[in-house]
User: Fold this.
Amino acid sequence: MCLLYIAVQWFFYLYIAALLGYALVSWVPSLRGRWSDYIAMVVEPVLQPLRRIIPPVGGLDLSFLVLFIGIELVLRYFVSPYTQLCGY
Assistant:
């Protein structure tokens, strides 16, 4: 069971890294390439429903921030306590 929680934790960490990479590419367009299309395929399906609920405010995409904070809360309150019980 410990391996399951560790795998979930790593999945969320990788997804956060993909979110940050996606944000970086949106801020610095010269970094765009084929690899950014793959990140968009992973991140956009989750951000699109959130954007319907939370529209951008003044050019700032709050759905990205809500998703980031949501993942952090899930990690902190649901995943990390179990991985700490396992000794990780």
Residues 2-85 form one domain. The CA atoms of residues 44 and 74 lie 20 Å apart.
